[in-house]
Amino acid sequence: MKEVEINAQIATALSSLEGMASVEADETLLDSILQRIHAGEMIPMRTVWLAAAGFALIVWVNIACVVFNAHPKHESAASATIARTYLNSKG
Amino acid sequence: MPKDHQKNKATEQTDEFRQLFQLYKNRVLNTALGLVQNRQDAEDVTQEVFVSLYQHLTTFRGDAQLLTWIYRITVNKSLDFLKAKQAKKRSGFIVSLFGGKTEAEKPVDIPDFVHPGVLLEKQEAATALFKAIQQLPESQKVAFTLAKIEGLSYQEIANILQISLSSVESLLFRAKQQLQKILHDFYTNEFLK
Lengths: 91, 193
Known about the structure:
The structure holds two protein chains of two kinds. Chain A is mainly α.
């Protein structure tokens, strides 16, 4: 008796989705989606700041290269003289 | 002049998107609702799906291809949502091990889900069925939801899941067997109470 009753309940559960109505989506959902889309299309301020910082870094590196380029010339000449003197002394 | 052209193009795209939303909103919401079994969560998934749709709008032109893609992305987003929810619960459990109070402290139980579309006299039975569906393996759950809630044909399900027709038949057969087993245990326990 018990098993028969359980089987009947299983059958009822399995057929419970028959005749089910479709759930209607809320119209406000579209507004939320469009808001999200348009917010995503705008460039975030953080990106702008990062780009500006990157550009400033490139300029600074360039200036640093120009300044330090003046010194290596003397240094390399001095190094060459020392090397030449060393090699000469070795014969 | 090019700015006007750009503006017109954007408006045109938004209008096309509005039309698509009206066409597919209920299919997306119902599929997501069947899988995540919570109205608020299903609406979140629906938003995700339509944002993706907007981003890929220019890629799709064929209607049949678009519908299959919409179903596929709805399934994927719903499953991702469920995985994220599970992961959150698990991380909550770890926090609770270190003395934090989280949701994981509540007993682990699948919440009752009353589908708003189910007929009133069938709601109790449907709640038991939805609880059983949640315990199915992922692929069986998806195939069963698409077949029984969305009423899709085996061929449509095969296209969405990118599997063969015989695989769909096999998935649905195993899902039904598994559901019968889960429901049998459930009603036996109810009977003993």
